[in-house]
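User: Hi! I'm working on a homework problem where we have to compare a predicted structure to a textbook description. Could you give me the structure for the chain below?
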Amino acid sequence: MGKNTVLNAVLPEVPDLHYSVSVTTRAPRPGEVHGRDYFFVTDEEFDEMIRTGRLLEWAEFVGRRYGTPRDYIERCLDEGLTVIMDIDIQGARQIRERMKEAILVFLWPPSMQELSRRIHGRGQDSQDAITRRLSWARQELEAVTEYDYVIVNDDLEKAAAELRAIIIAERCRVRRTDFRQLAAKLGTSADELRL
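Assistant: Happy to help. Predicted structure tokens:
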């Protein structure tokens, strides 16, 4: 089970959790829908998004570019949603730099052999792309200490439960609490609570 399997297990169980839709320069795979799976753009459109600062993060991976549209994330956050992203270490580093409040969670594969089996089992990549993916995965594992949390992705229920727990705990942090909303729920004002 890959990262998306864990995310798909968590999304319906956590209120106000939203999956970030990335921009990509690769062509849609069979069944993928623009705006649901990815925002599919040309290389020229992607270049323009970089030039105008419309990407919160971006990276090149196996010959194609992927990025997170800044306005899309900001709209979600303004709506009070928690946004979850599936990004590589290049993107995580950019997010860490541009969004200090972001929480980074590393999904660690159970083993390189299992990761290889999963990538081969998808049947979506050429052997060259698979080799590059596995090489990149080894580099990503070395960056785990740059993250806030690590989850070993060896059991779907356990991995999903741990990710849910992280999201819930982070939402409860005092620094993330909107005390005006909390006071309103308590039937008082933030001033009365001296917050």
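For your comparison, note the following. The chain has one domain: 3-185. The chain has a mean pLDDT of 86. Good luck with the assignment!
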